[in-house]
Design a protein that fits this description.
This protein is mainly alpha-helical and 442 residues long. 66% of the residues lie in helices and 0% in strands. It has helices at 34-49, 60-77, 81-93, 95-100, 108-125, 131-142, 151-155, 163-179, 183-199, 203-213, 220-232, 236-243, 253-267, 270-283, 287-297, 302-314, 321-329, 333-342, 352-364, 368-385, 391-404, 417-427, 432-439. Helix 14 (270-283) packs antiparallel against helix 15 (287-297). It starts with 33 loop residues before the first helix and ends with a helix.
């Protein structure tokens, strides 16, 4: 979006003396006046803007720490709210220079803005009495938000602006949105309207903004958002009507059912709430969803219920890592082992968090065969991808298999470790880097 002219000049610093605050990151025992703290902050910010050396991804953590320290020193030296607000605003206005000077793939620098800088802005803004001035500043900052980090101030507006001021700000945002020709530019302002409407629990206003940003073409995600805001505003019937527009097969069915359950409970629809609780549980069997189910189905024979669910899991045609974890949580280790071994071909080492989450408890339960099969999947995934930086993990998995092998008393129809190892060596003989690491002293 092209830069737009500002509707009003940037606020100028207030006159008058400021009290002396803590020294922040300054030398121990030193005390500075607020004017010195401001001067040092401006100097540090100027250095950032003039930076010529590019900050690599690996250096971004240190760069983010440097930015955090600048904010920390400001908070320690300045207690006058208006001066503090203006300084943090200047920090946000420097966002383009800051981001252009670094590779922020890690998100470290972005986090400084969306967490540390926002928190400091709110700290000062909550103490400042001229709320109309604050609203002007907030709007002014949004005019040139090319990196998306200034949105966090809008998202925190209810922490320093009263509702009447927020509503006036929303009216101004609507005017700016209407003045834009392209829908992309309109959305820049409409997303702020959505955020503010949600903060003041004005669901109809939120609905209007969402529909405007979608140009009247409502999608499942939008329906869910609107329903959620109506629930937050205490209007369960309207929330339910919006949820009715979302099909069961939506990609975000879990969120849909969670909102449905909440709405039915508010309205006292016990049968519908029970049906929804079952659907939530069956979609993702877990300790938490089982608790939700028990809360909604009323008195029930817990043991019979778990027996029936175990049978359904064992009869399933497809592997579900969450179902396997649920069986382990129930301490039905034998059933968990039977389930995993029956779905051997579906165990994918690329899904390493899921596979690892099963390997540890199976080893603790002394199911060494199943544990070995799981670690084999992890090892084969690494060797198949042949990315050397992951070989350290692969070596660890192979050594784990070496240690598990003597504990397996019956390999059933699976290759014993010695035979498996021999086949592994032949299949991946050219991965010399892997084998050198494996055979090197630990």
């Amino acid at each position: 979006m092209a830069p737009k002219p500002k509707s009003s000049p940037n606020p100028t610093p207030a006159s008058g003396a400021n009290t002396i605050g803590a020294t922040g990151g300054l030398s121990p025992g030193s005390a500075v006046s607020a004017s010195q703290a401001v001067s040092q902050f401006k100097s540090a910010l100027t250095k950032l803007k003039r930076r010529t050396k590019f900050v690599t991804w690996r250096e971004s953590g240190d760069y983010a720490f440097e930015l955090t320290e600048i904010l920390h020193d400001l908070k320690g030296g300045v207690t006058n709210p208006r001066v503090g607000i203006e300084m943090v605003a200047s920090f946000f206005r420097a966002d383009a220079k800051v981001f252009e000077a670094c590779d922020d793939s890690s998100g470290n620098v972005g986090d400084v803005y969306t967490f540390d800088a926002r928190e400091l802005f709110v700290h000062y803004a909550a103490q400042f009495e001229d709320k109309a001035w604050l609203a002007d500043l907030l709007l002014d900052l949004q005019r040139d938000d090319n990196y998306g980090v200034r949105d966090c101030l809008v998202d925190a507006a209810s922490q320093f602006l009263p509702e009447p001021e927020i509503r006036l700000l929303i009216e101004r945002l609507w005017i700016l949105a209407d003045a834009e020709a392209r829908i992309y530019d309109k959305r820049h302002w409409l997303f702020s309207v959505e955020s503010l409407a949600r903060q003041i629990h004005d669901a109809p206003l939120f609905e209007r903004a969402v529909l405007a940003s979608m140009e009247g073409e409502i999608h499942n995600a939008g329906c869910l958002e609107i329903a959620e805001v109506y629930l937050e505003a205490g209007d369960a019937p309207t929330a339910l009507s919006w949820l009715g527009k979302v099909p069961d097969t939506t990609f975000d069915g879990g969120k849909r059912d969670k909102l449905l359950l909440e709405a039915h409970k508010v309205l006292g629809n016990r049968r519908e709430a029970t049906e929804t609780a079952w659907r939530i549980f069956r979609r993702y069997r877990h300790e938490e969803t089982f608790g939700i189910l028990l809360e909604n189905i009323g008195p029930h024979d817990r043991q019979r219920l778990l027996d029936a669910e175990t049978r359904l899991i064992l009869d399933s045609q497809n592997l579900s890592y969450s179902d396997a974890r649920f069986l382990i949580w129930l301490n039905r280790i034998e059933d968990a082992q039977k389930y995993l071994l029956s779905h051997l071909q579906e165990i994918d080492g690329d899904s390493y968090p899921d596979v690892l989450s099963l390997a540890q408890p199976m080893e603790e339960a002394e199911r060494y065969l199943t544990t070995s099969i799981l670690f084999r999947a992890l090892l084969e995934s690494i060797l198949r991808r042949a990315i050397s930086k992951y070989y350290t993990h692969g070596v660890r998995y192979l050594r784990k298999l070496d240690a598990l092998a003597p504990k397996v008393t019956d390999w059933q129809n699976f290759l014993p470790h010695e035979v498996y190892f021999s086949g592994l060596e032949k299949a991946h003989a050219r991965k010399s880097s892997f084998w050198e690491r494996y055979r090197s002293p630990r």
